[in-house]
Amino acid sequence: MSISEPEASRPSDDRATPDSLLHSAPGTGVAPEDLVMASGRDVTPATLEWARKKMEREGPNCVERLLP
User: What distance in Å separates the CA atoms of residue 68 and residue 64, rounded to the nearest whole number?
Assistant: First the structure.
C-alpha cells in the first residue's frame, strides 16, 4: 500500500489571473448602471444620478477604480 501525499504538499495548479484580464475595458461603453452595480449599490434614480455626475467628472474609466 502506498502512502499518498498530503494535499498541502502537492504542487498547486492554481495560477493568478493577470490584471489585464480582470479589468472591465471601459472603452466598450460603460453606462451609469454599470458604475452603480460595480459600486455595490442598488440601481435607483439617486444612484444613477450619482453615477452620471461621477462619470462626467472622472470619465468612464472611473469604474476601473471600483473593480479589481
Answer: 7
Burial of 32 (0-12, 13-18, 19+ CB in 10 A): buried
Per the confidence metrics, is the pTM higher than 0.70? no
**For residue 5, what are the CA distances in angstroms to 1, 9, 11, 13, 31?**
13, 7, 10, 15, 50
pLDDT digits (tens, 9 = 90+) for 23-64: 555 556 788 998 999 899 999 999 999 999 999 999 888 888
Q: Give the contacts of 22 (CB within 8 A, at least 6 positions apart).
A: 67, 68
Q: Please report the beta strands in the chain, taking only residues with DSSP state E, as ranges in sequence order.
A: none
